[in-house]
Amino acid sequence: MKIKLTLVSLLAMATLMAAGCGGDDSSSDNAEDTEAITALITEINRVTKEEDAQGFCAVMSPSGVKETFNTQSRCVKETGKILEQTRGTEPTLEIEDIQVDGDTATVDLKGASGGAPVELVKEGGKWYVPLSTGTTSDSDSSENTDG
Q: Which domains does the chain have, with CATH numbers?
């Protein structure tokens, strides 16, 4: 169940990230990163719209895929199920701003229902959507003992 919740969270974030184009090349040092991040957002839009689970897993950080799913094939299987459930709900967002800080970036997105900042990571020289299994170590297991 933890993997399903992680996938739902990731796909919700990625759905927010589904963008066409945009970006700001305000610094020539970041121009390549900005271009690569814009291409990543465009690819996320494509794989979400086409329900391409293999493509979707390819835009996730390799370390996150390994940590969460153990194998690429399991990622494809689980992500495919979630993509089917979100069929036809891809919003159109635009990149408002890209801030690169080493191997991390914050992308501000804007769309019809508002905007949201999204964090990206660089692994092996390529930008990805980070995928983590959780950030809270206190409530990692099911502690719901009410009732």
A: 2-128 (3.10.450)
For tokens 């066409």, name the residue: 20
Length of the chain: 147
pLDDT, position 45: 82
pTM of this prediction? 0.70
CB distance 33 to 105 below 8 Å: yes
The strand pair at 126-128 and 114-123 is best described as antiparallel
CB 16 within 8 A of CB 109: yes
Angle, nearest 10°, between helix axes 2-17 and 62-69?
Answer: 150
Indicate if the alpha-carbon torsion angle 6, 77, 79, 124 is positive or negative: positive
The three-point CA angle 109-134-34 to 5° equals 30
Q: What DSSP letter does each residue of 100-144 carry, written as one string?
A: EETTEEEEEEEETTEEEEEEEEEETTEEEB---S-S-STT-S---
Q: What is the mean pLDDT of each run of 10 residues along the chain (147 residues)?
A: 48 45 49 94 86 94 94 94 78 82 91 80 95 48 42
